[in-house]
Amino acid sequence: RRARAAACATAPAVTRDGTTVAVGANVGSVADARAAVARGADLVGLIRTEFLFLGRDTAPDTGEQEAAYREIAEAFGGRRITVRTLDVGGDKPLPYVAAAGEDNPFLGVRGIRHSLAHPALLADQLLAIALVARAAPVSVMFPMVSTVAELVHARRMLTEAIARAGGDEGGLRVGLMMEVPAAALKAAAFAPYADFFSVGTNDLTQYALAAERGNAAVAALADGLDPGVLRLIDAVCRGAGGRVAVSVCGELAGDEAAVPLLLGYGVRELSVAPRAVPVVKEAVRAAGLDHATKLAARALQLEDAAAVRDLAANAPHR
Ligand code: PEP
Ligand code: MG
Question: Rounded to whole angstroms, how far apart are CA atoms 290 and 307?
Fold first, then answer.
């Protein structure tokens, strides 16, 4: 199975009934991007740009960022790359940005909140992204968005960056991560301002189940297959209403058992760790959308993640 997955790596992932699902990679360095190409990734669904900002004394300037994003775009040879704006703050402070101590950093100034509080940093990053977007298909994605006002504010800054970059938008698409439960539930309110939603199941699960990610003592609770989390993903897809593309870039997308469920809710793009690309493509090829839709609906009625896993493991593929 593994050998077959490797052989099929670069072929597109098409369900039994002929629907193509893009399988992208999450990357946190230029080296990751090269590994992802080798594993057959169709695109980059998430660049964790923190790698450029952490572990140093000053912020990378626009030129340094532009060079790194361009290198990733070039490694992907014309396929789309999704650049997430800086997702720091709270538990990942930057030494060169003054930050107030917080008792609950995961509920504090992180993601888009941090970027809007430090607009010069965001403006530089958006300019770098806009410059790369003139010559390559680029999507920009904002993390930890809770309100439409945050998205509108960030989009206004993006418009300014595009003007500074020469006014040519290229094929730039704009989206937000769905990782705050309230945002997922009101997804329809974001739809007029977004080309895509990307569900970040790592944070969405942490916030939905009130179980800190990375805390071993509550790791069993923080399961993305919990029906409460699946209801949020379903809500994102319904809020998207077929007009906004929905992808999943959290760890759940790399879980073979979850793939048919996600397709059943309406997700048509998955982005996973580079090493998981081949098996996720195989999971897509094994799925039929009709069956997946029924399976996904049944999962919403179950009582816990274990029951969802049983359902997924025991359901025939068609
Ligand atoms: C997520 O939260 O699911 C996600 C993909 O982002 P990160 O893991 O970088 O927070
Ligand atoms: Mg996240």
Answer: 21
